[in-house]
Design brief:
By secondary structure, the protein is of the alpha+beta class. The chain is built from 13 helices and 24 strands. The chain has a seven-stranded mixed beta sheet, sandwiched between helices. It has a five-stranded mixed beta sheet with strand order 21-20-22-23-24. Strands 4-9-8 form a three-stranded antiparallel beta sheet. The protein binds glycyl-adenosine-5'-phosphate.
């Protein structure tokens, strides 16, 4: 089951503290969102699942956390200064601004005027001044994708880890794009997070590795709880490929507003290392790169048992964290009837993604014995280290169950008067709503087993 509309998701996100409009109390800024108490947990859990599958469960990928502010040279060489643009059209009548592909029949979509400017390229990168004097002489870009600093750190990582090809560098972090028309909630925003892997391979083995990563990444999204029927692989047409790509497969998800890109897996060939390397002419670079007179470092690698140094090709699975969160919220959203009168909203997230792993609820909020025992249970479960366990001391058990259904808490544990007598608690399952009594002694094992 999925949500009926984006509005349902937006409403749940605000009501339950997942996502808020940024700068809300001052009227908000378009294309910027803040993650609330539940949102930050869900987002962290998704990023952790990605990191685990990329860095911890494999032995051919290293991690990186590079700076967001980047020298303009990086984005000159990468081609972003010249090509990372959208064609922009202004309406002279109502002063609205549009991407060229939003204009139909030469009319402004807002006021229907035909008094429009010609399309002109608009660069999507944000700039900021570096140092105390803002005279334009020293500036940096806020990175529009996380991967460029992976390429510029290629030799640092290689030298400090003794890796050989094939190997990858993974990074999760913020990226910024001055989107002309941010839209569809957190789908297209101006500040977002990416989870990017740059996997370096021998030229000639690139097509095989590309196929491998398309399959691997599709399976990963299914393991996060996305129904495979809502995913599609799209081979990007040659004429629509980014300037660096030989072949790209987009993983599309059926979002509430339509089928769109969740992740792209590109074969970037030797474009990136070829763009950023010193002494470009020492390599036979297959892609079209800008001449580099600035780099201080050769980004080649030696073939085993050979003298020759070559530039590896790059396969890049690049996923959006925010789009992932939106897809997961949509997939998990269920509205179901409990009986003839009542219904409930349930967020059936996979337990490893749930913002709260367990809620401990004292039946009586003013009873010291019950509350103290609840606190002890909370701390014992928290110590297991699977994520956030919460003490829910508001007293209304029905309301607490509703709230925890809506934020996707897999189990609720109620401590009541019986607990004081026989040392058992009620454990309620989110999905089935079944309740059973479990002894306090067994609770930590029960909890560990539930999540394993
Ligand atoms: N390094 C390659 C790259 O950045 P991309 O297709 O432009 O490729 C990769 O972006 C992913 O980043 C997309 O699949 C999407 O999930 C996410 N993304 C891109 N622009 C975004 C935006 N404005 N808002 C939210 N997510 C975005």
């Amino acid at each position: 089951m999925v949500a009926n509309s984006m509005e349902e998701l937006v409403s749940l996100c605000k009501r339950r503290g997942f996502i808020f409009q940024s700068n809300d109390i001052y009227g908000g800024i378009k294309g910027l969102y803040d993650y609330g108490p539940m949102g930050v947990e869900l987002k962290n859990n998704l990023k952790q699942a990605w990191w685990k599958s990329m860095v911890y469960e494999r032995d051919d990928i290293e991690g990186l956390d590079a700076s967001i502010l980047s020298s303009p040279i990086v984005f000159k060489q990468s081609g972003h200064e010249d090509t990372f643009t959208d064609p922009l059209i202004d309406c002279r009548s109502c002063k609205s601004r549009w991407k060229a592909d939003q204009i139909n029949n030469g009319e402004c979509p807002n006021c229907k005027s035909r008094d429009l400017t010609d399309p002109r390229p608009f660069n999507l990168m944000f700039k900021t001044a570096i140092g105390p004097v803002d005279d334009g002489s020293s500036f940096a870009y806020l990175r529009p994708e996380t991967c460029q600093q992976i390429f510029t750190n290629f030799k640092n990582v290689l030298d400090s880890t003794s890796r050989t090809i094939p190997f990858g560098i993974a990074q999760i972090g913020k990226a910024f794009r001055n989107e002309i028309t941010p839209r569809n909630f957190i789908f297209r925003v101006r500040e977002f997070e990416q989870m990017e892997l740059e996997f370096f391979v021998e030229p000639g083995s690139d097509d095989e590795w590309h196929k491998y990563w398309v399959k691997k990444r599709t399976e990963w999204w299914i393991n996060q709880g996305i129904n495979k029927d809502n995913l599609k692989q799209l081979n990007v047409k040659k004429e629509e490929l980014s300037h660096y790509s030989k072949e790209t497969v987009d993983i599309l998800y059926n979002f509430p507003h339509g089928e769109e890109e969740l992740e792209g897996i590109a074969n970037r060939t030797d474009f990136d290392l070829g763009s950023h390397t010193k002494n470009q002419s020492d390599f036979s670079i297959s892609s079209k790169v800008i001449r580099n007179d600035h780099s201080t470092t050769k980004l080649g690698i030696q073939k085993l048992n050979e003298k020759k140094i070559y530039l590896p090709y790059v396969i890049e699975p690049s996923a959006g964290v925010d789009r992932g969160v939106l897809a997961l919220l949509n997939e998990a959203y269920i509205e179901e009837k409990i009986d003839s009168k009542n219904s409930r909203i349930l967020l059936a997230l996979k337990p490893h993604l749930s913002p709260i792993k367990a809620a401990v609820i004292p039946l009586k909020k003013n009873n010291d014995k019950i509350v103290n025992l609840s606190k002890e249970i909370k701390f014992n479960l928290q110590k297991v280290g699977l994520g956030r366990v919460i003490l829910e001391n508001s007293g209304n058990i029905g309301k607490n169950y509703r709230r925890h259904d809506e934020i996707g808490t897999p189990i609720c544990i109620t401590v009541d008067f019986e607990t004081l007598d026989d040392k058992t608690v009620t454990v309620r399952d989110r999905d089935t709503m079944e309740q059973k009594r479990i002894s306090v002694e067994e609770l930590v094992d029960y909890y560990k087993n539930y999540f394993n």
